[in-house]
Amino acid sequence: MAKSGGDGKQERDEISLLAEEHVQLSVKGSLVTPSGKPTLISIVWTEKLYNPESFRAQMKSIWNTKKKFEIQMAGQNLFLIEFDSEEDLELILEGRPWLFRKSIILFNRISQPMARGQIRLTSSPYWIRIGSCPPEVGKKDLLHAIGVTFGGLSDQKLMKISVVLK
């Protein structure tokens, strides 16, 4: 069998990556690594298949942020959302729940590298409006009972409470 030409040494080509490609590589390993900007990790809570580009496009069209944000894949149905502004990140968290194709989007802040297997996105706050109630029922007791029923009380204003669904 004939050998190919050359002196037996293997040449190595260097590969240079664009910044965007480098970010993508950093999340493909076992760690999800935020860039240092205000960042959310999110998942669309669904078993249905969907196009991640469609998710990106819809979120960019409905979130009225003051500055830019980027959505990157961090795994199957797992996204890193990096904001240029902490204020915009807070706006998105306060506006929860968010839906994509009738499925809830779960969020958590991420500020340090995290193993993909350690990411737990299992709950989301909801505001529940409570109508008038009988005077003999104490407002605080009622709010506490509702909060405990739904998984926890996170905030209360007038006759609305924010509960965490689990």
From TrEMBL:
Residues 47-109 form the DUF4283 domain. InterPro entries: At4g02000-like (IPR040256), DUF4283 (IPR025558). It holds the Pfam family DUF4283. PANTHER family: GLYCINE-RICH CELL WALL STRUCTURAL PROTEIN 1.8-LIKE, OS09G0268800 PROTEIN. This is DUF4283 domain-containing protein. It comes from Gossypium barbadense (Sea Island cotton).
